[in-house]
Amino acid sequence: MTSPQLRSAELGVADESVTSPDQAGSAASRREPVWRRFLRRPLGVAGAAWLALVVIGAALAPVIAPYDPQAQDLTSPLSGPTMSHPLGTDQLGRDVLSQLLSGARPTLVGVAAALAGWLAVGVTLGVASGYAGGLTDTVLSRVADLLLSLPVLVILLVIFSVFPNSLIAPMAILGVIASAGLIRVVRSVVLTVRRELYIRAARVAGLSHARIVLRHVLPRITSTVIVQAALFAGVALITESGLAFLGFGVVLPDPSWGGLIAEASQALSRSAWLLLPSGGMLGLTVVAFVLLGNAIRDISTESWSAPQLASRRAAPVTAAGATGTEPAAPPAADVLLAVEHLCVAFRDRQGSRLVVDDLSLVIRRGETLAVLGESGCGKTVTALALISLLPPGGRRTAGRVLLDGQDLTLLSPREMAAVRGRRIGYIAQHPMISLDPTFTVGAQIAEAVRCHQGSGRASARKRAVELLDSVNITEPADTFRRYPHQLSGGMLQRCVTALALAGDPELLIADEPTTALDVTTQAEILAMLARLQRERGMSLLLVSHDWGVVASMADRVLVMYAGQLAEEAAAADLFTGAAHPYSRGLLASNPQLAVPGERLPAIPGSVPARSWPAGCRFAPRCPEAEDECLAGPIAIRAAAPGHFARCVHVTVPEGVRP
Amino acid sequence: MTAERADLPPGTTGPGAPAVPGAAAFPAAAGLPSASGVPVPAPSASGVPAASASGVPAASGVLSASRIPSAAAEPLLEVSDLTVEFHQGRRRPPLKALDRVSLCVSPGETLGLVGESGSGKTTLALAVLGLVPVASGQIRFAGHDLARIPRRARRSLSRDLQVVFQDPYSSLNPARTVGKALSEPLEVHERVGRAEQRRRIATMLELVGLPPDAADRYPAEFSGGQRQRIAIARALMVSPKLVICDEAVSALDLSIQAQILNLLADLQRGLSVAYLFVSHDLAVVRYLASQVVVLRRGQVMESGPARTVCEQPSHPYTRALLAAVPSPDPRTSRAAPMCASPARQAAGLPRPRPEPDPTPHPPGGMQ
Hints:
The complex is a heterodimer. By secondary structure, chain A is of the alpha/beta class. Chain A is built from 24 helices and 12 strands. Chain B is an alpha/beta fold. Among the domains of chain B are: 77-176 and 238-311, 3-Layer(aba) Sandwich (Rossmann fold), CATH 3.40.50.300; 315-349, no CATH class. Chain B has helices at 19-25, 33-36, 121-129, 151-157, 178-189, 194-207, 224-236, 254-271, 282-288, 306-311, 316-324, 342-347; strands at 77-86, 95-105, 110-114, 136-141, 144-145, 161-164, 242-246, 274-279, 291-296, 299-305. At the A-B interface, α2, α10, α11, α19 and α20 of A face α2, β6, α5, α7 and α8 of B.
């Protein structure tokens, strides 16, 4: 053992230091300064630039306006854009550009006043309502409802009668009244955040509520508030300009945007041009607010959310022949599913990533094959690739999937849809979210029956009840009418199984079907699956990470590591004599085999996120690694008939598996 | 042969401590039995590293060089007849999440709390932490009754009582760096300067096996197992006497789970911290705990030493739990049917067990 990585693998305690360069790279991108991330969003930049222009123009209006906004030039009224008046003049010959610039300041001040009132009331009451809950929440929600029911414009007009010449007070009142929407939105976000575990941890750590709100809650609502603020700024601007249009709040002849629009509408018959700069200014500014808000929201969630998959549409899957050198042999008679050299890649921000690498497997009729591995090994992606249900960003780049001799990779989407459910069924991991909560369980199963068997409603219902009975639900007719939220986890998983069996498939893919269930329920579900398999002669592809589940169900086991096949063997052979060091290590780290008081044998390190070494992918964590392991890709070797492992230490000198 | 500091596994003491006893606690190549061929020796009491040299704050005075659990020691946490009820609306009687539960945790030991979903084990942990109101009963901890303690006193007690939650992905605020998350308990309970804070954070990160530059990174950059280490580090920052582990390893992969279990055991030996370990997994509890309490629907079914409860249980529910766990040995746990496949017939696997009747679940049961 020479390299430092292997040296650390000797230690009993895990060395999980993040040393791989790709993770360091993503870390650097996460610490990228905010302004640089902002600059990568052209629309946001455009919005910010426009707003900056408007603000600067408003601030410097007395200096940079080409003309005094009140200066009339009766010789050229209502002129279109000319050299001397780039935006034209109004009825009295006043320069429109100068008017827009000087009118900008009171307008923006009004918007700022509205925003201030809106934020102050909305955030405070929203946070108080969401965080405190109980009576406070009830009272404040009713206050928000009250605010929503107030007639805003009428109240504003009353305020105007009290403060005839000022825009600030009425706009602030507008903000307060409109904050009801913000209260609602902030409350819902705070309700979600309050239930997060780190809030609990902060309370246990002894933080006071005030500190928790300041430190943990407010940062999480920032992006929501910013987006809402941008939208509200647009609304406030339009409202204010509308009021100015009507003549409120502005002392004539001081220019204002709304006043300009009023003049433009009066002069419409004589010159349509005037409406363009005035209305355009307003429209562009509102759009700029929205674009800026969107960009800020995107940036603020980016730094601590997982990288998004690129939005480009995945390349269409082309039929790829077998990449191996052996000829495509005709499948044996009892082979139901044969997967040859399957490769699946995912595209994300950092490029394309191979998640499943050259995986081949065979399932015979009536057989149970378990795919075992830890998170990130690609077992779920493999299962999804078989039925072409990869999530967006994923695509099969190579390999064939032969169901009874028919290559599924060559099918059109419609033909593939006919295979799904009718020939291959699928059970997902979480029964709670596998069913539509707005329909009864029976309705969903009956729908599947109608789809696959083309029967009428009544016979579909009857069949659905029969299916529920076959999964050992004690009162199938009663359960038929229940909604998913009324059933326990075990019952739901039985219903999901019934749904998967509605098309009478030959192969059932069960993706960790019992992980979310109690151990007693797990035993029942496994026994049910075994019985169904026996009765129907169905094959079962069981994806799991649990050795006990695998031991009790599987005929053959396939161990995956880092997207590759690590070992494949009959279940009995694997448990008594695993050939691959990863399988051995995983078996040894099962706490059921541990001796209390002695150290639990643990595989050090963890699966690297992205960059895999050129040689054996397990080598950095393997106690038996040698230089040979890192030299190049490791071929699969046969340790015994029917027992294969991807390891150089497998002693049978045979070559690649047939 | 003196191992260099860089080669010392995280968890041992800083410079000055002899490398050999430290290395004995973490024997090389202990990972895989086929490699070592020799069963891992149990760490001796004298081989425990003196935690005071490692820089972990010894202010609490609980740290001792050797941990000898004594039955005569005053129990650290004593729960007596605890009842927690949840309202179910006006017409229905309140739901008893916990019904007169009693247990007790000794200093420096682990009590395993086992049960299925709806058993109330998490509710008990939350009640001890004060996150759930208590209907009746007592929770005595360090001389106070946690069920009735005023808020200010609880805050000062929170120094001795910490928690590690199940979900490594939501137990850390994604918008704050790891360093900020770890410094939070320090800021509340101890007024230390920035430099001292940074030093303690670095020490703790090393203790849980993370690189020191982790303090400047965000939780999103770490895997589940690493985040759980961060959560453990956060819980131990102020040297608590009792850490409640609420299904702390349930969401982790098998190999990572083994690493974290080893880490928890090492930290307990080194820092003499007690654990209230809540789990649904009897095997994990058997490995880590010295005492076990089995809960079902809010009531204690059985309690006693871990070995006894997990290997020769007396209560039928515990026996049913044990029987339901599939053992990782295909010869004894076959549920799958025989079929025409020649491979299976050749393997000579025994006949399948009959399918048990499904336990009737009330609709909308406790989840």
